[in-house]
């Protein structure tokens, strides 16, 4: 079954372009479009997509607000924020609001399609390096206010898994590194998300950075 | 503390003080001459020197008030005292000197020469004495002074006093030099009012720059995103869907053209700014008639333009210019401009029939709004009744 995608952008030229790019992938399918953050909620309700490609800057209701609205729905879709520039303060706000990742509008079509697949599968992080950089630049701002009780409840193994998640490792890679089965890793990841009260991988990693559990400096990107 | 004794800064400041003393010399010579001519020297003898010194200080102050000594003093204070002196804004430095600035320069000049004179005198008196005192055990007193016999009672008395005096002189110099260096920025740098004006100017420039950055970010970034996405899409359906490819190519062409127009405009503003800061004075409302004539707009200007403060006048001119340019570029019919100067505020309206209302309110509107808000006014722009309006209202008094 193809991955169902909804595109929300106030510029119709961006929408039609993204639609063509997504629709030409055999395993992806655009099931709806919205020209505004307010319009995206009813579209998602009726089309039940797996992933929403969400423009950040939209008139009336912007992408961050719309992300919050979507994630309040029962069985919400994954949200990927789409922006023009990657130094956008909006990106981080959107990630904190619950978006699973972000994409630049200038991404290559193949990368764009791949990003949708990664987010839909939820088994590794989209742009770990960029999230690390964003989190690093904001760590001091949030660190003091983010004491996360769940972090103390992690077992040693789960803490290892969280660190590897923050490095951007996929479940398969974590399994190889810790010499355990893929199913075991899946269970660990599930436990980490549950203990941190995180919706997905991205949220868990942001929590890990902001609480100082993982310091961006100690991690080596692949 | 030791660093004061051996540090380079102390000796540079010493040089500055001695320079002050040297500059004072002509005044003292003139003063002594007048004293000699009037026969005062015979009457007061040795006590004449301090009197002459005090008597020439008003003359020094007068010179500071009249002659352009500021440049010299700023150079000396910067290079010798090591004082951080902010440059005056270009228009103050090149134009006529205000009396406030003259007074502050004169105060500094008098302070430098007065204190420098005293310190140079002390240096001239102390150094030979120190040499004599240190050599006392081997040479004997070259002149008869009561202290010499006292010092000769023990052989190390002379050298000890000599070294102590020298050290004391260095510390005194360091202290006086530091005090001078501290007062230099206040007397030679911009006054508080000028500082405020400088700051305002900097804020204004910053606002313009931010406006331009946002404009580039919004318009060019947006257009290039459309180009990238549409080109990517076109490449994907090249073989299957010629209609979609044609539409994508059209969109790419249109977006790129719009981006170039925006770029043209933003670069134009940047160039204009550069010109304004280097040579040509920024245009004001006094130039509005020429602008209106050049664009062929119908203008209605009421009130006395001369009562508008320069800062406001420049800004309103620039906004009128940008609005007229936009109206000509994007509008479809005759442009009307109305400027009314009232007692305490002014109002500007520019309107034109708009064929196609731009979807995004780019076109420098954000920058204009920002600048008007900075000056404490209200700004409004947008479509109304088939026309595009730009209107603003600015207070003329704080």
What does this structure look like?
- The complex is a heterodimer of chains A (222) and B (398).
- With 222 residues, chain A is α/β, with parallel strands linked by helices.
- Helices cover 53% and strands 13% of the residues of chain A.
- Chain A has helices at 12-23, 37-47, 63-71, 89-96, 109-121, 128-143, 149-152, 156-166, 171-178, 182-196, 201-210, and strands spanning 3-8, 28-34, 51-55, 78-83, 101-104.
- In chain A, strands 2-1-3-4-5 form a five-stranded parallel β-sheet, sandwiched between helices.
- In chain A, helix 4 (89-96) links the parallel strand 4 (78-83) and strand 5 (101-104).
- In chain A, helix 6 (128-143) packs across helix 11 (201-210) and helix 8 packs across helix 11.
- Chain A is globular, with a radius of gyration of 17 Å.
- The two termini of chain A are 32 Å apart.
- Chain B has 398 residues and is of the alpha+beta class.
- Chain B has 14 helices and five strands.
- Chain B has helices at 2-6, 8-37, 40-44, 48-66, 70-81, 90-94, 99-139, 146-151, 157-188, 192-236, 242-278, 288-295, 310-330, 365-374, and strands at 298-302, 336-341, 345-353, 378-384, 387-395.
- Chain B has a five-stranded mixed β-sheet with strand order 1-2-3-5-4, covered by helices on one side.
- In chain B, strand 1 (298-302), helix 13 and strand 2 form a beta-alpha-beta unit.
- The mean pLDDT of chain B is 81.
- At the A-B interface, helix 1 of A face helix 10 and helix 11 of B.
